[in-house]
Batch of 3 targets.
Target 1
Amino acid sequence: MLLHFSIYTGLLLLVNSAQGAVKLSVNPASGNVRLGESMTIICKAEGGDVDSIAWYNAEEDEVEESEHTRVTGDEYTSQLHIIAAVPEVGGMYLCRANEDTDAEIRKSITISVIQDPIFNHLLPVQEFEEGSDALVKCHVSGIPIPVVSWRHPQKKIHQSERYTIDSTGNLVIKNIQASDAGTYQCVGTIAERQVEKDLPIKVNVNHVPIFVPVDPHLLYSWLGNPVNLSCTFWSYPRAEITWSRSGSDLGGSGRVFLSENSTQIRSVLQLPVNSTEDFSEYRCNAGNSRGSASGTLILREGGIPSPPRDVTADPHSTTIEVSFSGPDDDGGIPILGYLLEWRRNSTREWNRMRIDRERSRVSALDPYTPYQIRVAAFNGKGEGNYSGIVSTRTLSMREPDRPVVSTRTDSMSNNIQIFFEDVESGGSPVLRHFVRYKEVQADQWESVTVNDSNSYLLQDLTWGSDYELQIQAENSLGQSLTTYLNVSTPQRPPAAAVGERPKVGTGGVVGIILVIFLALLLVVDAVCYRTRRCGIFMCLAANLLGRREPEHKSLDHEADQSACRMTSSTDKVSSLTPISKHC
């Protein structure tokens, strides 16, 4: 009993001691405060009574009220107020509390005054003289002090012989050139806080105008066809552009349009080209306060194209395939197309068609007839000279050429679509197509005749098999040569992909029947075990688990044995008296 009392007393003392333990919590846990902003840090005593609680600085002097700090609180809390934070209020602070037992508890927090990069003394546009050492100014401040770097869209800025970044972050470009003009990015980065700010600064370089070469500088036109002459200069400050022709100022002979940005200026001279004097040399002159520059353009009268070369004619029964090469001289003006002409030898008038390629076909001709072919090119000024005449004769009427065959298959289908194209009918319309096909490994061919159609669909082919195709065209004069083609059907997709229901085979049916039979057997056996105490379950319980019969059965058995004993001890009983089966 005394032992129990001692244990109880010890546990009570431990509980009272745990209840009286004082803990300090500081909220918020982070002491980051932005420059000029305010925040309040709360120190709270929990778990017991304290005599005092207050805030102290790193020198362990109690924090006094000032312009930027103030302390308030009550019996269990002390609140440190940072007002319009300045860098001087940063540092470590201690929250100290004294318990009734005179034990002191401390909790510290470090206050950091932070500031994102700020760009001071902004100069968004800065100008320099070409050839000077340029100091591109960018002053960046922040807490902690940011690291300054520079970027440019077209060039990499790094410490080199031409580019340096001084200790204050300014970019120094030695011997600055017109190509250095553009927009730079001054970047301030505070790595420990993963903060980055940038400021675009435009750099202009005062330089003499620079002519941008024109391609081509040699232009062509013709009388009555207006033309625009254009020249472009890089220039800063802005240049004035004038035009002259063969050394003479144009004055009001043309219209000048200026399109410019801060460093580029473009002038367009519009000429009506009314006389041969307009075909001359033109000079555009640009000048600014730093100097002048000029560029030259030449306008010449364009001519008609020379004849096409290497004209050939490939005759068929009712068509002629014509091919040729372009002219050696386009006359200085782009070729717009070609004129293809043909006629019978016995006629004087030419048939004409306009084409845009160097190969074409003349159709609807008479079989076995002589024809003449010629070709000319044309440009904006007009038609060029014709090529030499090429004579040919169409072929007699015959069977068609072998057809051009193409096929189309679908990955989800075992069908193949066949398309026929009859290039040459032999002078008589194609009446039908004959299609023969078989699997590569098969011996028997399947045949089908396709009338009045340029396609045919082969259906229900074997999945994933290779097929041989033979196609012929036929007109009234006979059959064409055979076109041979090999095609393949795709692999059979999953049944769900082609909309088929899964089929259950014989093995599946037998399996389902066995599962049903086994389930019925288990149900019947369980009922027998539950009602009659027999069956497979009963046998397993008795043999494997050593299960005994229920208690009421044992009692009945003992009663039967007692009855037997009583019957045997009675006076003589007739031997004919039946004895219980339990005996």
Note: Residues 506-531 form the longest helix (26 residues).
Target 2
Amino acid sequence: MAKELFARNKSNVIPFDQDGEFFYRKACKYVKDNRYIDALNFYRKAVEKEPENIDYMLDLAEVFTEMTYFDESNKLLFSILENDDSVSDCYFGLGCNFLGLQEYDKAEECFEKYLDRAPNGVYYEDAKELLEILRDEQFYLDVFDEFEFIDPKIYKMASKGKVLLDDGEYEKAARQLQKVLKLDPTLVFAKNNLALAYFCMSKLDRAIELSKEVLDVFPSNVHANCNMAIFLQEKGDSEGKQKYTNSILNLPTDDVEDLHKMAVTLCELKEHQKANIYLKMLLQYKPYDVKILHYTAVSAFNLRRFREAMEYWDKVDKLSPYNTISNFYKRYTQNLLRYNGEFKELPYGFQVPYEEVVFRVKKINEIFNTPKSELKEKWESNDSLKALLIWGLELNDDTIKRAILNTVASFGDQNAERFLRDFILRRDENKDLKKDALTMLKQIGAKEPYIAYVDDNIVEVKVNIIDMSRIKIPKELQNIADFTISNMEDRYSSGYQEQIKDLWVKFIKAQYPDKVPRIRKKEAWAAALELYYCMKNDIKISKGEIIDYYGISYKTLDTNYKKLVNVLEVQA
């Protein structure tokens, strides 16, 4: 009888399958309460239920912006524009995101587009005000004032050295930073990064020597003090390590990036209690930074505050649902408590332990050998496959990444297209891999143009869409190359004429027909062309010299030069 009653009642249960509006309303409520992590979770569910609802996507993009997830917000806004470029609010959102990313020329361009397309728009006055600020010469000079005395070419070289260091290419990073310091021995941040490169190459004494050079001149330099504490710990000099650890704890912590360096250093020094305090201070400035939340969780775990650790990993799960790292450590902690296992401190890096890395790489290699029909079924029905492949893209192995991209492209569905589009919007990925992904998008019939990051700039790319040989350049545009050449005469040795003509022709053809620039002032493009030529041929010249010669503003030169770089680098 009881069994029959249960069956009868069970059949009357209404499935709890809500539509997108249910989740959207809950998300809006959480936003009003400033509970952005919970709001993010429900907005995602609303979009998942109704992927064509633009209002839901715009609100989700706005929440990403509020949380300073500018790239994630941009991905959503670009995906809307890919299907319907008339949604003008996207341009205002993109402008705000590029402003947050300090890509001011792109921000200006987006606000201009918004004002043109939405003269009665909700954000019209806001966009107008922001555009006026961006066009103010003083704002532009204030923003770039700290780089006034750094040669742009040298700064770019130093930045490339930092990227190589972050990617684990230590020897390449060291060679790059050595070149930088030969050109400008005063760049402290380059010396600090070179010291780290030496340390990672097991050249400990050279690393210590270089850090001492910095500290002799700047004894309160946060990065040099942090580096020394780590170097001396590695050397086994506990007294020296403690000296610099105390220095770190007594340094001012007003600057967010300095605070970040101090917190991460305390993690590496295994000063778990102090690290936990500094990480929580850092979270006041970066409350949604996934890596900082993970570090805070690990510090709590190492202090045996397991419930606290789990709460931080829960936040990471909500912020990054396809990450597989926080979930691994949550299961690890639960098993430790359930089975009363042996406690061991966890490392701080945002990665699973080495044994798990080996296991996952083996699993990914097995995926490549799985029959396509079986694999596609898993792709369509199981998010864990996508999560594992996303994890694989974080490995410093281009062979694995290329295999993952090929595998995903073979599915040829909307999810595969989104996966590839997201990949080309990653900032620090290999150019060749991005070119491969662009080709794959073309092969699966994805709508052009494709929006990609190239050299830290957003560009629109079409794959073999125009027969370049048939394009005829209008006379007024051709004259720019001649004007530039005449102005370079007597200031450069011969050989520049053909290069200038070739560069300008390539630039115009790449922009043809919709994006060919309107020539308001020919001096502006001549200046940018000359600067680009000099940078490409290792000819030392300052932007100030070019600005004075052509009688233009710093901002105009910088904007046009960046456009040349964006377009010509893609052509290359």
Note: Residues 468-571 form a domain with the Cyclin A; domain 1 fold (CATH 1.10.472.10).
Target 3
Amino acid sequence: MTEQQTRRISPRSIGTSLDRVDGPEKVTGLASYAVEHAADDGVAAPLSLWLVTSTVAKGRVTRVDGSAALTHPGVTAVLDHTNAPRLAKTDNGELAILQDDRVGFRGQVVALVLAESSEAAREGAALVEVTYEQQPHAAELREDNATYRPERVNPDMETDTDEGDVDAALASAEVVVEQTYRTPYEHNNPLEPHATVAWWEQHDGRDVLTMFDSTQGVHGVVQALAPMLGLEPDQVRVRAPYVGGGFGSKGEAHAHVMAAALAARTTGGRPVRVAVTRQQMFSLTGYRTATISHIRLGADADGRLAAIEHAVQEQTSVVREFAEQTAAPTRMMYAAPNRRTSHRLARLDVAVPSWMRAPGEMPGMYAHEVAMDELAVACGLDPIVVRERNEPDRDPETGKPFNDRRLLDCLHRGADRFGWGDRPLQPRSRLDGDWWVGTGVASATYPAMRSPGNSARISSLEGGRYAVAIGAVDIGTGARTVLTQIAADALEVDPADIDLALADSLLPPASVAGGSSGTTSWGTAIVAAAQLFRADHGDTPDPGLHTTASAADNPAAEEFAFHSFGAVFAEARVNRWTGEVRVPRLHGVYSVGRVINPRTARSQLIGGLVMGLSAGLFEESYRDPRFGHVVTQDLATYHVAAHADVLDVDAEWLEESDEVFTPMGSRGVGEIGIVGTAAAVANATFHATGVRVRSLPLTPDHFLTT
């Protein structure tokens, strides 16, 4: 495998709205998702696996009685901590299930039921009797218990930063905004629940585990499971040809994946199939932690910041630590000579939090952008003017120049399109019948990331065609389509001449579909392999030639700060009698480098806006601290935006190309759409009503105070 320094490519297909290459399979029902897969020919039909989960938040399992379950027709086995296969390593507390009698959170896997059908497995699970020695637990995030300082925050950032003298600058500031902002627990709810099919075989005298998994990264599943199972990576094969969404929750292997592997270990080679229920997803497959952001802004009377402090409190699990980087965007967003950020955690007896679309950036920018709106009000200024006056000429965090920072272009373009110039400065200025009407704005940002360790393989075929292989996963974002376009341009052929293979851990390694880094990382590797192939074999190669290469590190990363930016504009209508909030207009303008495929990019950006709208108005998981579980564990009580809530939502982008960052000129679009959106809606509700709400969601009760 060769590391290749990639060069920019001339776009031919890139920038065009190529139809999704997997569209026909999806609309005709031929696309097979995780639980629809079977093992290779000649292997028996899969057994169904049902997860039995803990009903206490902390304690020990004293007895698991599966006798009644084993008498139920179709049930073949009950596994618990006394008879489940042993793991070679148990350092990942989320995955180390059924290895001892300890219970770390309510909803933890405490037993498995195998049966000939899913119905039998479910009935069998209901018959399993589990008794516990219950212990006192802590399951409530409070300001007085979030005091633990993690070593790092996701993905590998400094926990705290402190530059200048924040306290002195605040003491001498003409205008000070000092407020606390809160975001709730939120749960990823992709259309396809998490699911896995697993079976064991013997190859050349070695055990081999094969899986179909609904995952955002097949290689990540291998890396997580193999050492825990005492296997080499080449003894685990994971495939994910079609995935029905993830929003970050499928970025890591969760307990159900290990459950399938352990259960399949006991079946003599027969496959095992598990589908996590919608209710179980609220405890087993990750979620966004609640956050408490204490923000202090100090500025002069003209709104120019002298000091920014963002102190975050959130939670992690005693089972496995996850620290969200909520204050990270505050470090680089606006110019101020004195800046301080910190993260503190409450270590609770709860399920393990994980990634959810724009982890850190979404809740952190909500707090910061509402605070900036409050600063504008305190100074009597237009919110866009305040942002203009605090535009940095370099990255405040690193001191590096921005390679491309076009936030003001996004703000000005959005303002023109939205009709911002007609906006009254004073809140509560417009009443339309029974509805107060207002508008709000918020900035968006997301780091431009290229993940290391990505490789691609190019093979020449008959008739001038090429096979392109990389172990990336398309979770519904359009990766198959844009990677086909990138490969076609790099090889100077039509997209129809590309046969793209994805989502198999036997293919060259690829990073997770997350962090808005997929297209940039995988596409750069494909370009590197294509350029090396053509250098070695020419423009008209004979069939049967192969080249595998990975992209070299980008030397410009040491020279520039790479970020994408955007501006979100919202109109809110708040009913004067009921407090009901409606958002008839929600528009975003973004600077994200060159857009590979306008159709798929627009889908991603609008999806982010809708998800941000949903977070702003509805989404809230409620955990009952008395029992440690999420009460709102279904889509009847965990509310999300529906068709009637999504009205005029639109997204556009600036025409540009960032070829310093990638040879395609792109920077990634998957997550920036959600960033700042809830803040724009919150700021619009304040402008409509004069009522400042500093906690999400913006439910009607907040607006019934006047």
Note: The longest strand covers residues 305-317.
